[in-house]
Each structure stands twice: as structure tokens, then as C-alpha cells.
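Whiteboard transcription, Tuesday session. T.W. wrote the C-alpha cells on the left side:
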């Protein structure tokens, strides 16, 4: 009787195992049919059983499920995971770990599952990057890299994934990680000089101006004749507050490309920030002649005239002779008048920009344009209270 009891127990246990494995088989069919909610329910039940929870096919099916979730347009299915492809990858890896005979690995290779997963990760990473989820994008691109660097991936490696990972890391504030990927791109000669420029930006973000400068200065030997090196050095020197070095490089760049409005603008802003208003006015006027529809140039020139006029007012207060004082004030008012069209253009280009409105408020007050002053003041007060 005891033997019969034991035999029955074995039968019941086996039946339970087969029932749970049947859930996994059923889930695979449901995935193919697009019934992902029912497939997930079946797999959740299988995972609650200690035996099927350690069966490699359970994890393989979960990998298929989450890959299908990513491809689905059904918002209900999207709620299953914030990172469905990360889940898919983790489950495929677990399936191979639990499969003692290596059959799962063969299925992944022959079915080109990792090839498709890598493409999906590229798409997911791009979507996350566009949505400014840079941490998520980095994870997706790094998982793509992991997959393509294994023997389970069959095909040509996309070197662009390293660059994508670098950009995601840079925007996520992980500059050391970004540098690692940009260095990889440079080693592979991907995108020529561009990865070096990105490395320089990352070094700057880390506060290592010396390393960024050294890197940029090494590039003419690697890429002779590339004029963008000078532009990158100018940007570096401006950000580092090395105005003399910036001006030296700007002189070289302007001589080589006198029609580049951005060079005149950059030089003008340096002069504006160092209170050399006449030089700033000359450069910013030239920048606007070359390209008139930029807010920054219009506002910058307006600000240069306002600052110059304000200095003239201060100096006029030291003049004791009444006639000379009146003349000096009149000249200052003339400079304020010159600022007006540029500040109004800046306001036209960015109607709700507080800085342009503040500039207009001062000009309308100085020039006794009461109605316009009241209108601008009211709008500025509203914006500043928001």
C-alpha cells in the first residue's frame, strides 16, 4: 500500500510539473497571437511554481514576451515594463544560463533573436534620447553593445552604437563614460574628427580645461587642414574665460572665413563682456549684416549701445560745465536711440523674452515713450510673476 501511495505522489508531482510547463507552451502560442496580457498571466503562474521557475524555457518565453511588448502599440501592454527590452535581454541570458545542453543558445543564434533585439534596442534608445531620457537611452545602447560583442550575435557590427552611447552618456552627465565610448569611436576612425571634439566637450564638463585644450591642439597633426579645430578652440577659450587666446584664434578664423557671422558675433560678445563697447558694436553690426534674423545678435548689439550710453551718462555727471554736460547727455540719449531698433527686433524674434523686454523698458523710459513703456512694463510684470 505504501508503494502505491508513493507512486501516486510521483504521478501527482509530475502532473503538476507538466501543467506548469504547459503554461509556458501556452504562453508562447499566445505571444504569437498577440494576446500578451494572457501570455503574461500564464508566465506569472509558471513563475510561482518552484520547478518551472527554474526551467530555461520559462525565461526564454519571458524574453519573447517582453520583446513583443516593445513592438506592440497597445498602451495596456506598454504598462508591463518601462524597459521591456532590458527585461527581454535579462530573461534570454537567464534562459541560456539554466539550459545545460546549450539548446537555447542555438535557438537564439539560428533564430537571429539577438540580431533583432539589437535593432530593437537601437530604436528604443533613439526614442528615449528624443524624449530626453538620456539615462534610459544609455542603458539601451549599452545593452545593444553587450549583445553585439557576444558570439550570440550574427552579422556586421554597427559602430554607430558606440557614438550613440557616448552622446547619451554625455547628456546624462556621465562624462567619463562618454569619453570611453568616444575614444572607441576614435580608435575605429568613426566619423573622423567628430569624436575628438565630443571628448573635448566632456573634458570641459569635467572642468579639465587643460586636457581639453591639449586634445584639440593635437588634432592638426591627425587632421591637417580641418578648420573646425580653430572653431573648437575658440569655443573652449570663451568658456574658460581666456579672452586673449579666443581673440587670437578668432582673428585667424575671420581672415580665413570673413563671411561667417558667428565669428563676428563671438568676438563682439567677448568685447561686450569686457566692456569694450565700440569694438562690440562694430563686430555685432557686421554679424547682423551677414545674418539679421538671430535674436542673440540683435539683443547683443542693443545691449552694447545701452551699456555704452549708460557709461556716457555716468561720465557726464562729472562734468561741471552746464553746456558741456547738456551736450554729453544729448550724445548719450543719441546712443540710447541707436539701441532701440535692435532691442525691438530682438523682442520681435522672442516676444516673451524677459531680457529683451527689460531692455525695451529702460529704453522707452529713457526716451520718454510713455505709452510703450507702460505696455512693456505690464507685460514684463506679468511674466516675472509667473
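and on the right, the sequence the group agreed on:
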Amino acid at each position: 500500500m505504501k508503494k502505491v501511495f508513493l507512486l501516486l505522489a510521483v504521478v501527482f508531482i509530475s502532473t503538476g510539473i507538466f501543467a506548469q510547463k504547459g503554461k509556458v507552451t501556452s504562453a508562447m502560442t499566445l505571444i504569437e497571437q498577440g494576446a500578451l496580457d494572457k501570455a503574461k498571466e500564464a508566465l506569472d503562474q509558471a513563475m510561482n511554481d518552484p520547478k518551472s521557475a527554474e526551467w530555461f524555457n520559462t525565461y526564454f518565453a519571458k524574453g519573447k514576451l517582453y520583446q513583443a511588448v516593445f513592438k506592440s502599440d497597445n498602451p495596456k501592454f506598454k504598462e508591463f515594463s518601462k524597459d521591456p527590452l532590458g527585461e527581454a535581454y535579462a530573461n534570454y541570458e537567464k534562459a541560456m544560463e539554466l539550459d545545460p545542453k546549450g539548446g537555447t543558445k542555438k535557438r537564439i543564434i539560428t533564430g537571429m533573436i539577438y540580431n533583432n533585439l539589437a535593432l530593437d534596442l537601437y530604436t528604443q534608445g533613439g526614442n528615449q534620447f528624443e524624449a530626453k531620457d538620456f539615462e534610459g537611452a544609455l542603458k539601451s545602447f549599452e545593452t545593444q553593445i553587450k549583445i553585439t560583442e557576444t558570439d550570440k550575435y550574427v552579422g556586421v557590427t554597427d559602430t554607430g552604437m558606440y557614438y550613440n552611447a557616448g552622446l547619451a552618456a554625455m547628456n546624462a552627465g556621465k562624462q567619463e563614460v562618454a569619453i570611453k565610448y568616444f575614444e572607441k569611436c576614435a580608435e575605429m576612425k568613426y566619423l573622423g574628427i567628430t569624436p575628438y571634439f565630443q571628448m573635448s566637450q566632456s573634458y570641459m564638463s569635467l572642468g579639465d580645461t587643460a586636457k581639453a585644450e591639449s586634445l584639440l591642439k593635437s588634432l592638426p597633426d591627425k587632421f591637417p587642414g580641418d578648420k573646425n579645430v580653430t572653431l573648437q578652440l575658440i569655443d573652449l577659450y570663451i568658456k574658460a574665460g581666456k579672452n586673449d587666446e579666443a581673440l587670437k584664434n578668432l582673428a585667424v578664423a575671420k581672415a580665413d572665413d570673413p563671411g561667417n557671422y558667428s565669428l563676428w558675433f563671438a568676438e563682439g560678445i567677448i568685447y561686450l563682456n569686457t566692456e569694450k563697447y565700440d569694438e562690440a558694436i562694430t563686430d555685432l553690426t557686421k554679424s547682423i549684416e551677414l545674418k539679421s534674423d538671430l535674436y542673440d545678435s540683435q539683443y547683443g548689439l542693443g545691449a552694447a549701445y545701452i551699456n555704452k550710453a549708460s557709461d556716457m551718462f555716468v561720465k557726464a555727471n562729472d562734468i561741471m560745465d552746464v553746456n558741456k554736460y547738456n551736450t554729453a547727455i544729448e550724445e548719450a540719449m543719441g546712443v540710447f536711440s541707436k539701441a532701440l531698433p535692435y532691442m525691438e527686433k530682438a523682442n520681435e524674434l522672442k516676444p516673451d523674452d524677459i531680457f529683451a523686454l527689460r531692455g525695451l523698458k529702460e529704453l522707452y523710459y529713457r526716451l520718454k515713450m510713455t505709452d510703450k513703456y507702460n505696455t512693456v512694463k505690464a507685460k514684463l510684470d506679468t511674466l516675472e510673476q509667473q
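Someone added at the bottom: Residues 1-18 have pLDDT under 50 and may be disordered.
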